[in-house]
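Objective 1b. Sequence-to-structure analysis of acetate--CoA ligase (ADP-forming).
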Amino acid sequence: MFDPTAVAVVGASQTKGKVGYEAMVNAAEFDGPAYPVNPSGSGTMFGEPFVDSVADVDDAVDLALLCVPGPAVPDVLDECGAAGVGAAVVYASGFAEAGEDGERLQATVVERANEHGIALLGPNTSGFVVPESSLRCSFASGVDEIPTGNTAVVAQSGGVALVLAFQTRRQGRGVSATVGLGNRANVGFVEAIEYFDGHEGTDAIVLHVEGTDDGRALVETCRDVDTPVVAYKVGQSDVGEFAESHTGALTGDHALYEAGFAQYGVPTVDATDHLLDAAAALGDSPTPDGPNVGVVTAQAGPGIIITDRIQRAGGVLPELTAETRDRVGDILPGITYADNPVDTGRPMPAFGEIVTAVAEDDNVDVVLVYELFEQALGFPVEALDGLAERVDKPVLFATEGIEADLAEDRAALEAAGVPVFETPERAAEAAAVLARYARSHGEGVDAEVSADV
């Protein structure tokens, strides 16, 4: 599914605005061939002639994108099975989310897919995108602008998958893949997590979860993979009927899901931007040894916000060693506040030395730096470049200023592997996720989670 050599678009259309047209436009950008399939089609699309069936394609097709109405899906899957197609995406709705008739149709679809050994994404999904290979198996517009990154987005909702992908574009981060599971006919969280755990371009996996009928399998899979996983479980208030009408989801007890993720070492967040920030922190940084966060700020106000937020979100602000305090005092005599957080009062040429001193403190597991941009001084790029690897600790950086002024320095930090955040709160939440991740994994948590999840 996620690494095909050839793609067929079943129900491809030359009529703009139809799902079959938009899906074909996106699929045509694939590094390999994309074939239009429609018995009503004529001529060619993007250089490939229309054929009546997948079986008529003069090539081995790995992946079929089904732009056909729900009732036609079982027969199309039979054609795909006969042609040796190994994976399919079903965009149509009207399945398990739509009542008893839809449930019966989905059961038939799953039966046919399993009979032919077809991995099935959906139904009721907007598909998936793998930017690195220009694999844009979605009918949504704009997916060609999603950049390549190292975070795999696995969302129950196709809409949320795209929300997250477009957010990563604005943040300059990108994704290794973004996947909308939809109704999870026979490809669900477990299969997607296991796949992206072995995906070379993925360093972190983020989940958007409405609900699932096998919460235990979900949390156990998250525990067993090597790639860090962060989850956003929605449904803290009563959204059960709405969620069930959306992807056929069983939302379950929110507190049980939260407890299950916590017991199995999966940090949870409560916003889409926090989800991506956590992925950047976990995917781009060494794994911290513990929950202790050392903060260096060039301005006291943002530092107070960060200090408060980190502690409320599960991080710890340890006392710096006497050696570090003396070292900081020697670098900047009369410094505003020389404990944790270290407050320099404003940016200055020695700011990078202060950051280095805190990063080298044995009491610190995670470093968070805040500095409002001052054009005359810039960021301490040279000091931070390679610092995280040398001390084997995450080093996060947060800032604000005029975008055009700080763009070059920000790009230099990101090129050096330093995750950059735009608000004190988002940086603090990311640091706290690292702290919670270190605490749960450091303790080797393997507790039993309630069978009710």
